[in-house]
Amino acid sequence: MAMTRALITAAGLGTTAALVAAAAPAQGANSYVALGDSYSSGTGTRTYIDDGTACQRSVYAYPSLLASAQGLSLNFRACSGATVADVTNAQLSAIGAGTTTSRSRWGATMPGSPTC
User: Fold this and answer.
1) Which alpha helices (H) appear in 1-116, and where do they start and end?
2) The CATH number of the domain where 46 resides is what?
């Protein structure tokens, strides 16, 4: 299965990047993988998913809201405090042949992130 990936970088108050991967959906699957740091996990919402981690993933974070609105199965890998190395070494592996959508977003304070 061929997968297309595009990296989009935008500058605003900080550096934000979105990695969007699209592939032909697996039969009956609509899988969304959310990668990144606190910018993606939802830190600050004060309502966190009890998943046994310190990642501060929230039902009010954009990945949760997007997955719910679009009927996607969410693989929520974004984690508060993640570095570029964490995303590269621990989160990217969640993207597989059955992944139909993936986004990676990080804020300006992420160690190792590009600057403008």
Assistant:
1) 38-41, 62-70, 84-86
2) 3.40.50.1110
User: Which residue do the tokens 């959508």 mark?
Assistant: 101
Per the CB < 8 A criterion, the answer to whether 37 and 15 are in contact is no
Taking only the tens place, the pLDDT of each residue in 85-116 is 888 899 999 999 888 888 887 776 655 655 54
Domain of 84, in residue numbers: 18-105
Phi, psi of 69 (to 5 degrees): -65, -30
Q: How far apart are the C-alpha atoms of 74 and 32, rounded to whole Å?
A: 5
- Output the pTM of the full model: 0.68
Distance CA 82, CA 43 (A): 12
